[in-house]
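debug: dumping io for the single-chain case to check the tokenizer round-trip. Nothing else runs in this session.
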Amino acid sequence: MISNDNTEFRDLVSLTHGFAVILVEPQLGENVGMVARAMGNCGLWDLRLVGPRDGWPNSAAIAASSGADLIIHAARVFSSTAEAIADLQTVLAATARPRDMTTEVFTPREAAKRLRQDVVAGANAGVLFGKEAMGLDNDNVALANGVLSVPLNPKFTSLNLAQAVLLVGYEWFQTADRTPGEGLALSKETRPANKQEMLGLFEHLESELDICGFLRVKKKRPVMVRNIRNIFQRARLTEQEVRTLRGVVSGLANHSKKPLE
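debug: decoded output
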């Protein structure tokens, strides 16, 4: 249990830069409080809430946090998942259900290594957790670079929010004194693209694909869009590469609009 002493608590949560914990439409304040407690156990401090059902601030969350109230008070609320992850370069989506998508899948241990590598390289990272009853929908999963799945008894895989956060946070905390063996080697002129930049690329590309008719079949459009986004999410693009790709999209679009000579 975390001490209520603020100095000790600040020392604990400042052990590592950490990753953001993003709760998408959490339903109960008590669950948010228990997530904050699990985060404090693992030296994590950046809690982000997307559309909490019971509103925010929430007294039930503070009561259930068992002294991790600094995390509760510092939590930020967003109206959409896209806004909550806009400043992040690496995002993983925690899910227990198989998805009909082509994407990387990580166990908590593998996820912790990936998150640590990217954070050490200067990236901002986060993990998405869905609401208690239904988890994350496919559109939220498509915003992530990969899926985080916990290998458990296949006949009983149910986890509450705090358990899921603690599993990932524990593995993260265990990597603190280890030097990552691999990761992106970036030039000094660029950095990993954040999600706001990636979403800008997606919306730009999808707009032009709508104009040229590639996404004309309404029934298939959502799946096609998610598949296209997953291709680029796996690529781990830099900010410079995103700008280059947007230039490519603009160039192709402008060329197609020129009259034939």
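debug: round-trip ok. The two ends are 75 Å apart (CA to CA).
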